[in-house]
Amino acid sequence: MRKVRAWVMVALVLVGCSRQTTTTSAPVTLLTSTSAPPVTLRLLTHDSFLISESVQAALEQATGVDLQVLKGGDAGLMVTQALLTKDNPIADVVYGIDNTMLTRALEAGLFEPYTPPGLTDVPDALELDPEHRVTPIDFGDVCLNYHKAAFKDSGLSVPDSLEALTLPEYKDLLVVEDPATSSPGMAFLLATVAHFGEDQWEGYWRKLRANGVEVATDWTTAYYGSFSGASDGDRPLVVSYASSPPAQVHFATEALAEAPTGVITDGCFRQIEFAGIVAETPEREAAERLLDFMLSLEFQEDIPLQMFVFPANARAKLPEVFTAHTVIPERPLIIDPALIEANRAFWLQRWNQAVLG
Amino acid sequence: MNRVHRFANRAPRWAAVIPVAFLVVFFFYPLQAILAESLRGGEILSRLGSSTTWRVVRFTFLQATISTVATLAAGLPLAYLFSHYRFPGRRLLRAVATVPFVLPTVVVGSAFLALLGPGGWLGRDASGSLFAIIAAHVFYNTAVVLRTVGTLWERLDPQLGEAARALGAGPLRRTWSVTLPLLRPALAAAASLVFLFSFSSFGVILILGGLRYATLEVEIYRQTFGFLDLGAASVLALIQLGVVAVTLLTYVRYQRRTATQVTLRSPIDVARPPDSLRARGMVAAILGMAGILIGLPLAALVIRSFQGQAGLSLQAYRALDDAHFGDLATPVQSATNSLVIAVVATLIALGVGIPAAIAVAPRAKAAELLDTLIMLPLGASAVTLGFGLLLALDSPIDLRTSRLLVPIGHALVAIPFVVRLVVPVLRSIRTSLREAAAMLGASPAAVMRKVDLPLVGRGLGAAAGFAFLVSMGEFGATLFLARPDTPTLPLSIARLLSRPGAFPEAMAMGTILAAIAASAILVIDRVAEPNGPSREF
Fold first, then answer.
1. What is the pTM for the complete model shown?
2. What ipTM score was computed for the predicted complex, to two decimals?
3. I need a surface site. Which of B118, B329, B406, B508 has the fewest CB within 10 A?
4. What is the rounded end-to-end Cα distance, in angstroms, of chain B?
5. B-contacting residues in A 106-165 (Cβ below 8 Å)
6. What is the pLDDT of residues B83-113, one digit of tens each?
7. Inter-chain residue contact B37 with A345, CB threshold 8 Å
8. What is the 3-state secondary structure (H, E, C) of B70-96?
9. Would you give the DSSP letter of residue B516?
10. Where in chain B is the domain with CATH 1.10.3720.10?
11. What architecture (CATH level 2) is domain B50-305?
């Protein structure tokens, strides 16, 4: 073992030397401003994180930090990375941890408390940690989406509840994602658990199965492979997000007057994304300034069109494409994060048996 | 004579230091760290005893084996075609046939869904089937067979075949007892690479396999992502590593046992135009098959990128540069990131791979072990290794979030290719040539400089090319690292594919990647034109 360690040292020194030359010569641009502010702050986040250049500049101006963004894959992998490096953190702030994973991070002592003044503008329902170890930054609802034209053509009415999906007229129309490999898939499973309760949800899934539900491994395969509202697929119902219709309009290569898909607001599961200051970071003050800024209107109003989720700050105005093409469900489903943590594996196993077994 | 032998034995030992150090630091040490962190004794035993685990192992092995056989079956006729016949567009077609190799799995998955999914060109839904998985693996890896076997085939001395014909052997008999045995080393090398790729396949299985089919790598991801169970994931990663190691050792052994000394000749005059009707028919048939296996999925990708609401349109390409994409990296930024990372990865892969090839070239027991170790990362779990790197590389220098980490990850995958391409060339340098140089008083360094290097040059070109392509297309390893925000083309495509409404743009970005890859291959082919000295595999 000692020999191995010696080798590691030697090689690391070699690599360390070469690293310096590469970092200075490589023209890979980081999302940082050219004038180097005094404090470098490391932000670990998921791959969906995006921020406008102008807002990033304003952020660095307002907080006096040089923001170094690290992306760690999807939210689940990113949180695992944060947990694995807890004793020697790779970041000062973590952003993008959601309510399905929150308890694990809190129990591991990943974050230290901070209460940003802007929290007063955030609805209480979004604050899940009474100790304020994490701050809600945004939320999104995982909802059923439907393909408008398909329902118009067939003359079927759009299902208005989770229960309706088991009716014979909706046979073979729905595609969902595997909760073990997809975050919206997991959210939809949790929605059914929340709606039908611990005793009934498996029975509901058995009925869905009998009614021909298709299970895709991830969102991209479901949405771009099977959903008729976005592909050549033949399923007019898909588990996606409340923000999907506005995204379709926003990204359309040729201008659309109306979104081709709509949102069913019954049976939506709410995902809330939090940011937290990593315990014992040497940059505590800068980290506080970053969290303050993340709740400011400037950052909050940048969120929808960059990341396609909704701002946590209730005063933040939504862009027009959002107000025109979607609604925020009034009564989204939610489950106590501690309950999710305690039952995650158990529920997944039972889901597997009910749907695939 | 003594001195010559001393050189032959000693050179590999110093050469082994660099690859061994590299593998220890960036592969074995990190893997050991994550396994030590998350493995618990009882869990290993209960997992090993679980029938689900073995079902996944069996399927992983089975699909990799079928994929390998199918890829060889598709790749051999192509290798024959390109090495024996000259026809218009040959160079371009050869480059195009290599393009799939660099396409990220998300793109290939989507292209195949367009073909085989519901409403696809096939007319019925074949997604979620073993057929779809194998077809995608063949699409991906045919280039590996084409490149490894083709380069040897165009140098086989036709006199052997002619001698057999003179002795009365028919075409089948000649293929079976003359050509195939001569090609065996290249076939084995190609098979081993394809097998490892298919064995650790992740994206293809996830997208096309549906829920019925899971490889070990997919199961590792499910355990990590869904169940948040690193312990279970680690057990599976360990099993995967074990199976890969055993397979590799078998391959390396086989390589040594069956090694033959073959005199090869310059390939320049081998290829000729298909002048007979039969030859033309054969060329057409092989091209037709390649058109279906490789051309169709590529066409699905390209056509979809040009699909507007009313006929063909450049909208998707224009949209990529539009402000409404938010601050997602533009194609130019992503391509720049990809190119820079690919160049660095190639340099690392050559810096480690060349000494590794020198160390592995002699047919000795120790070299066999090293050869196995070098190939191992190709079949290892990317998820697990990504976590391992995070755990292990924090001291004495914190490399966990270094910009070098992504190219290093790519290099781990590229090094096996460098070794597989350079070793045969090294082995081809006849010992007599070296001995002569040494007898005439040349120092080991001089032998290296004056004899080895000039002969190896061309092989190095091909190796550098493959390393570059591996990096351009690499997706899995990149995904599982905590990395600075410098998206490569594959990562940007994946981002686009996670956005409702951005499908045409994703296909456009995929087409851009394919075009860059095809151009790179054309350049590489020109540089690495195989007209070097005779080779022995």
1. 0.86
2. 0.85
3. B118
4. 24
5. none
6. 888 888 888 898 899 899 888 887 888 778 7
7. no
8. HHHHHHHHHHHHHHHECCCCHHHHHHH
9. H
10. 16-30+316-537, 50-305
11. Orthogonal Bundle (1.10)
